């Protein structure tokens, strides 16, 4: 009997010590596994460090890498179709030239959106927004960026229609977020999709955002998503106090990911999802 009690006590002590050791050396031992929250891992334009951004290859890679979300830049063609592309011209990421909004869907899908990144991606197309959400709904989170919406009147309604048609606007769809640098567009979208969380993107010009501005954002946004270069402990605290979460962009090195972990952000938007997974106990 005494022997059984001793073995049980020993087992409890070992279990307790395993789960209270500092989880990651670079955090100075301040947090234990028990205290850590999950860091949300968002693949920026898909896993764009590994495959051409905003293509199905990049989204598929993010899915394979078990990222929590794919981030998608949504723009609109001349004939009103929603597509995924970051720049407002096709010059950098395809074999074509000119403005996105000057192409019809048929024309833009004839472009090669993969070979600029690597020969193994020759033939990748610019995908439609509907193709992406039909492929990945329920499989991975969708962080939808309305990219330069001022160039595409009605883009907020088009995105809302696509989601509503599929019943993806209901409160149970927890892993859909809409964001934009254009905060008026975020407000418009929030009015159309009241159950979907929205985020304001904040470039370096927002380094000195005031508490009043944060409170105003929080009237329609659930996320304040800043450029990583303006992230400080104090900013993260103030955003949290305003009731919003912080998903910060764009991590392209392990050091940058480590810094954001230290700053206690809620999510990391990265070209390389593996940098976010290298933190044992946090994912
Ligand atoms: O999701 C944040 C990030 O995508 C914003 O910057 O220029 O890469 O769209 P950008
Ligand atoms: Ca983006």
UniProtKB/TrEMBL annotation:
Keywords: Signal. Residues 1-25 form the signal peptide. Residues 39-280 form the GP-PDE domain. One of its GO terms (biological process) is lipid metabolic process. The keyword Secreted does not apply. It holds the Pfam family GDPD. GO terms for molecular function: phosphoric diester hydrolase activity. This is Putative glycerophosphoryl diester phosphodiesterase YhdW. It comes from Oceanobacillus sojae.
């Amino acid at each position: 009997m005494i022997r059984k009690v001793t073995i049980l006590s020993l087992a409890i002590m070992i279990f307790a010590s395993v789960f209270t050791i500092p989880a990651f050396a670079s955090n100075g031992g301040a947090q234990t596994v028990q205290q850590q929250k999950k860091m949300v891992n968002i693949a920026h334009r898909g896993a764009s460090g590994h495959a051409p951004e905003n293509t199905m290859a990049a989204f598929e890679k993010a899915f394979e890498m078990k990222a929590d979300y794919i981030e998608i830049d949504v723009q609109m063609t001349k004939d009103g179709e929603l597509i995924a592309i970051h720049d407002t011209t096709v010059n950098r990421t395809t074999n074509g030239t000119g403005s996105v909004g000057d192409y019809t869907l048929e024309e833009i899908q004839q472009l090669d959106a993969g070979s600029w990144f690597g020969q193994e991606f020759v033939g990748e197309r610019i995908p439609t927004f509907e193709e992406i959400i039909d492929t990945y709904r329920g499989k991975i989170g969708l962080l939808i960026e309305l990219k330069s919406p001022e160039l595409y009147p009605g883009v907020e309604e088009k995105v809302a229609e696509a989601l509503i048609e599929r019943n993806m606007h209901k409160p149970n769809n927890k892993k859909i977020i809409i964001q934009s640098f254009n905060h008026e567009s975020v407000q418009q979208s929030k009015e159309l999709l009241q159950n979907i969380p929205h985020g304001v993107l904040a470039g370096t010009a927002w380094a000195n955002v005031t508490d009043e501005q944060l409170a105003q954002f929080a009237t329609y946004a659930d996320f304040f998503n800043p450029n990583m270069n303006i992230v400080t402990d104090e900013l993260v605290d103030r955003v949290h106090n305003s009731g919003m979460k912080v998903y910060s962009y764009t991590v392209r090195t392990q050091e940058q990911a480590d810094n954001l972990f230290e700053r206690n952000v809620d999510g990391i938007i990265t070209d390389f999802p593996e940098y976010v997974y290298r933190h044992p106990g946090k994912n």
